[in-house]
Amino acid sequence: MTARNWAYALPALAVVGGAVAGMPTANADNKRLNDSVVANVYTMQHQAGCTTDIKINPKLRLAAQWHTDDVLNNRALNGDIGSDGSTVADRARNAGYAGAVSETTAINPALAISGIELINQWYHRPDYNAIMSNCANVDIGVWSANLIDRTVVVAVYGTGDGAPPVQSPGRPFGTPGAGAPG
Fold it and tell me: Where is the signal peptide (predicted)?
């Protein structure tokens, strides 16, 4: 390229570069994925003959979030034990859940995972299939998070919570705000 061509190309590159630099970063909203996990577990339970409806529990979702964030940011972790040695029971108890719990964890070496890929992984693991199909699990909390090269999904299942609700600031996750349609 001649000096004259560079003189024309540089302003164009500056405009394009400025436009790209000014673009907002993507913030993944994994609510759809998390909700699909709950729906797929519901389906598995009903195919197994369960007559109860599994429901989202904010305490279990918090326990799932803690472990998701821990696994996402500590690449040496690959299962149910946290970097501090905590178990799913420890995390659920620390979140205020008083029932028996179990957990399924997925680590995908990519930016994203589809609900179909995820449930397929868990379905074909006998231990995870047994957890998801267990009719005693009436509560669930799901959390997922992504890095550019890693996605982690954690579902925590509970057999019923005898503890009182945990007080938290702001409105509970998933509820409409003031003035929003209910």
Answer: 1-28
- R_g (Cα) of the chain, nearest Å: 21
Per-residue model confidence as pLDDT tens digits over 21-58? 443 334 457 899 999 999 999 999 999 999 989 999 99
Domain assignments of the chain as residue spans, ordered by start: 31-158
Q: Check residue 128 and give its pLDDT.
A: 96
Length of the chain: 182
Top CATH class, 31-158:
alpha beta
What residue spans of the chain are helical by DSSP H? 3-21, 31-47, 58-73, 88-94, 115-123, 126-133
Adjacent-strand bridge partners of 150: 147
User: How are beta strands 139-147 and 55-56 bridged, if at all?
Assistant: parallel
Rounded to the nearest angstrom, the gap between the alpha carbon of residue 20 and the centroid of all alpha carbons in its chain is 29
What is the Cα–Cα distance from 38 to 55, expressed in whole angstroms? 8
Task: State the sign of the Cα–Cα–Cα–Cα dihedral 123, 128, 129, 135.
Answer: negative
Whole-number percent of the chain with pLDDT over 70: 74
